[in-house]
Design goal:
With 259 residues, this protein is of the alpha/beta class. The chain is built from 6 helices and 8 strands. Strand 5 (144-149), helix 3 (151-162) and strand 6 form a beta-alpha-beta unit. Helix 2 (117-136) crosses helix 3.
Amino acid sequence: MKVMFTVTLLSTSILFLLFFPKKSINPSSPPQPLQRDSSSSAMSRARSFVLWLHGLGDSGPANEPIKTLFTSPEFRDTKWSFPSAPSAPVTCNYGSVMPSWFDILEIPVTAESPNDESSLLKAVQNVHATIDREIAAGVNPKNVFICGFSQGGALTLASVLLYPKTLGGGAIFSGWVPFNSSITEQITPEAKQTPILWCHGMVDRTVLFEAGHAGPPFLEKNGVGCEFKAYPGLAHSINNEELRYLESWIKARLQSSSQ
């Protein structure tokens, strides 16, 4: 339990301190599956797959202790993946180079913050390549769950909504809507059926609570259902209460077979 707080607090301090010269990412390069880590070398036909996307400046391995909290038997055959974002200049951190899924233009993130959709869509393509690989290996799409914190939560939302199939679910922690309304035209009827869980601390000063709270109405306006949970007293971090709820939320949606 103590490790969890160390990890999330480290992510928070990076977001505050490392958070402004924008450098675009070439969207023409082919999508690549996200970098595998040592924890994701599980069985070739996993019953379920959970992809965890970390926050700005963090790393995949630093978040691996999360999976130790998922002790229910239903997760015995789950394949976990905690990839690390590539290093890139980040505008809100004055161009400093750090692990980042896409560019962030300002901090704190508000409900009205501008977005860099070009680098976001490049990251989405890479997430989709990872999902495609797992489905091709035999995982039922409805047993694929994408989860993420902060920047990783924003990427989770975009990746789930723009994937052409219905997935098991997308879980966003302290995230925001990282794209403009025009992208919603690309959401397929199948993607609209993917369950969304959104958790946000009410005293978050990095991704303001208003940014998270604006998400569900935006989604519902576009025909996407969303369960939103607010956590009083929680800053820009993840607590064990959120993760315990995530465990039960995923359990309730797991399918009984691979196909």
